[in-house]
């Protein structure tokens, strides 16, 4: 398989203090790391693309490590998500290659994270934006942590590139009050509840 050719990495961190209501005791931090790489399959149909997932694993781990550092350590992380934005000469399936390398990298660094890492992917042009879904790291049904973070770069992805994204958060949405399973009530048996 071809090497991963990295053009750039971008890091973004948001700190949210309130959404119009009272200021909570603790702010919410959301962070994203975006890697823009050359799409080795751009412009052609390649039947066997799965081996490229192995090539992406070191990049996924490096990105996850950056996120943990940005947010103050693995013990601070409560939510996560991943995404891929594929340039116009690629196909949606190329973004699906990010599922395992991106998801497993985050779960490897976050002890006990049982929930599937939510994801999205799309084909888009330079400057396209993408909403990355976020859920709780241990139980997908924790409604307070259903969130998203919009990401994008003004010069990516070029037609022959992919932008791979990992997102982590330090908590629930500010002012969450939609009910459902509370993080304190997670049983941790199946990644759902």
From TrEMBL:
Gene3D superfamilies per record: BB2672
**Looking at the Swiss-Prot or TrEMBL record, what is one Pfam family this protein matches?**
AA_synth
Q: What is this protein called?
A: Amino acid synthesis protein
């Amino acid at each position: 398989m071809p090497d991963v050719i990295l053009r750039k990495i971008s890091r973004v961190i948001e700190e949210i203090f309130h959404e119009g209501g009272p200021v909570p005791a603790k702010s919410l931090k959301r962070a994203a790391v975006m890697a823009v790489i050359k799409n080795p399959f751009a412009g052609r149909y390649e039947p066997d693309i799965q081996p490229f997932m192995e090539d992406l694993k070191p990049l996924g781990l490096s990105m996850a490590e950056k996120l943990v550092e940005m947010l103050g350590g693995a013990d601070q992380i409560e939510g996560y998500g991943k995404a891929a934005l594929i340039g116009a000469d690629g196909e949606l399936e190329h973004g699906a290659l990010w599922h395992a390398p991106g998801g497993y990298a985050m779960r490897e660094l976050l002890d006990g994270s049982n929930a599937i890492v939510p994801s999205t992917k799309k084909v888009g042009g330079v400057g396209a934006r993408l909403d990355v879904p976020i859920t709780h790291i241990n139980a997908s049904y924790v409604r307070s942590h259903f969130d998203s973070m919009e990401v994008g770069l003004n010069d990516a992805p070029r037609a022959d590139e992919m932008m791979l994204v990992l997102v982590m958060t330090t908590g629930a949405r500010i002012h969450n009050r939609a009910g459902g399973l509370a993080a304190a009530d997670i049983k941790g048996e199946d990644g759902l509840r």
